[in-house]
Amino acid sequence: MTKNKKRITFLIIATIISLAIGCQEERKSIESRCDYDGVKIEPIYAVYFTLQDGTEKKFCSIACASMSFPALKKQIKEVRVTDEPSGAKIISSQAFFVESEIVTVPHVKNRIHVFAKKEDALKHIQKFKGNWVENPFLS
Amino acid sequence: MILNALSIILIFIGVLSALLAIWGGISSLILYRKWKRPSRPEEKTSLEDRSYLVLLIMVIVLLIRLINWPLFYVTLQSFISDIEGAMCIFGVTQVKVGLTRFLEFLKPTNFFLIGGWLILHFLDRATKTSPLMRKKLLLLSIIGLFVLIDSLGDIFLILGIAPESLVSCCTTVTDILNRPTRTTPESILGPEYAQSLQVLFFITHLALMGFIGVSLKFRIFRRLILGLLSLFAILNAFVFLLSQIEVFAPRMMHLPFHHCLYCLWQYVPDSIVMYLLFILGTFSVGWGFTTELFGKIGEASDLLPNYLRKIYWFAFFFLSASLIMLVIHLLVD
Questions:
Q1: Taking the CB of the first residue and of the last residue of chain A, which one, N or C, has fewer CB atoms within 10 A?
Q2: Interchain CB distance below 8 Å, B268 and A36
């Protein structure tokens, strides 16, 4: 009986320790990751949703942001995307969206590229067989 | 082939266990056929000696195969950085989809069969006359075949995964609106299926623990009851899996739209412990049934109730521990 009790105590302690370590790891991993699928964000492809309450949601690609958009639509105040050539954050309504054969974020096979200047977008279209696409964040 | 320490270990274990499974499977089948034939005392002694040697070696092989299941996933995890487009194990499974899916079903099956056989083996060893020896040898030859297929599968998979393969990962499969894990419960439980699924899981899980508790308290170890308990454990496992994908995993990951369990293991590592406890708890219920089914012979029958009590006590403990871990997670979040 004493032997059994020792085993039980050991198992319970091991469970609690693993739980505690796990919870800490979890918090570390959530920061600076995509709010859709948890992947580490490449800054030049990032998309940001500013919500009505002032909080911000960040996404690794246009694909992940588009998938989250319908559910968050009512809470969104502003959508900002990243200009690929410069890395600057711009409001999505002012951006140019191009779909081409180049994949930006492989795990979601995202082919939509964002540009602040029309001439950059045109260059990309010519170079990589692209075509214009509509702003995916129109409400 | 992606060469790293884990893939080399997996191939080494695969080759070794494949060879020993062929030898052990054939030997145990021959011994099974010879065991019941009347023979002279010296022949009987030689047969017993051979049987013990086969059992000794096969027990080691089977114990290694038990470890192989988690090792398989650790190895796939180690390949993520070499597969373009993979962000979790799901991406790696997409390189050789058919073979990986097959192995993902075979490995838990083998784990269950091996665990059940080992319990029978230990029960038989506790007796003086080895009444389960013949059954053990027959079952061992069948398990040998499963181990062989599993080992060869491991080898072919590791050799077949080419570095720099381009795949799509879980987001494009597990998060789409018409995923079966969403549409099936939604068609049965309605649009608020997530809430219902959550409640259903707690009901089935607590009911399973309650039934095990009653069996332990009143020492009800009848075959029919244990069979029904095993079926209920399978149902509970199905509800657990569904509720994890649809409700609990997104909550634990803090990613409300993401439903990938491989990502859960990556982002919330202690969930692996929770899953392990759940698997051991569920399998223990099945192991109790198989032990009763195959172990009720001669001298072993007297030892059986005590063994069953221990197995079901473990099932109760593991299922409780996994539930506590889940509840703590939900409360902390």
A1: N
A2: no
Cβ contacts of A26 on chain B, cutoff 8 Å: 252-254, 267-270
The answer to whether the CB atoms of A39 and B87 lie below 8 A apart is: yes
In a mutational test of the A interface, the residue from B81, B174, B255 whose CB has the highest number of chain A CBs within 10 Å is B255
Distance CA B12, CA B5 (A): 11
Contacts of B34 by beta carbon, 8 Å cutoff, 6+ apart: B47
* Residues with Cβ within 8 Å of residue B283, at least 6 apart in sequence: B111, B112, B115
pLDDT at A108: 87
Q: Where are the domains of chain B?
A: 5-160, 171-332
Nearest to A27 by CA among B329, B171, B91: B329
Q: Is the ipTM of this complex over 0.85?
A: no
Closest Cα in chain A, distance from residue B232 (Å) = 26
Backbone angles phi, psi at B132, to 5 degrees: -95, 0
A21 contacts B270? CB cut-off 8 A: yes
For residues B70-103, one letter each, b for 16 or more C-beta atoms within 10 angstroms of the residue's C-beta and e for the rest, the string is: ebbbebbbbbbebbebbbbbbbbbbbbeebbeeb
Position A28 confidence tier, pLDDT thresholds 50, 70, 90? low
Sketch the domain layout of chain A as residue ranges.
1-31, 43-133
Residues 6 or more apart whose CB falls under 8 angstroms from that of B161 comprise: B1, B2, B79, B83, B92, B95, B96
Contacts of B85 in chain A (CB under 8 A): 106-107, 109
Q: Determine the pLDDT at residue B37.
A: 73
Residue range A68-78: mean pLDDT, rounded:
91
- Neighbouring-strand partners of residue A65: none
Report the residue of chain A nearest B267, measured CA to CA.
A26
CB contact under 8 Å between A26 and B255, yes or no, is: no
Interface A:B, Cβ pairs < 8 A: 90
Q: What is the number of other CB atoms lying within 10 angstroms of the CB of residue A139? A: 7
Alpha-helix runs per DSSP H in chain A: 2-30, 62-72, 118-127
Confidence at residue A4, expressed as pLDDT on a 0 to 100 scale: 75
For residues A135 and A126, give the distance between their C-alpha atoms in angstroms, rounded to a whole number: 20
What are the structure tokens assigned to B98, written together?
């058919």
Question: What integer pLDDT is reported at residue B106 of this predicted model?
Answer: 97
Low-confidence ranges of chain B (pLDDT < 50): none
**With contact defined as beta carbons under 8 Å apart, do A40 and A7 qualify?**
no
Predicted TM-score of the model (pTM): 0.88
From chain B, the residues in CB contact with A37 under 8 A are 87, 169-171, 175, 255, 258, 260, 263
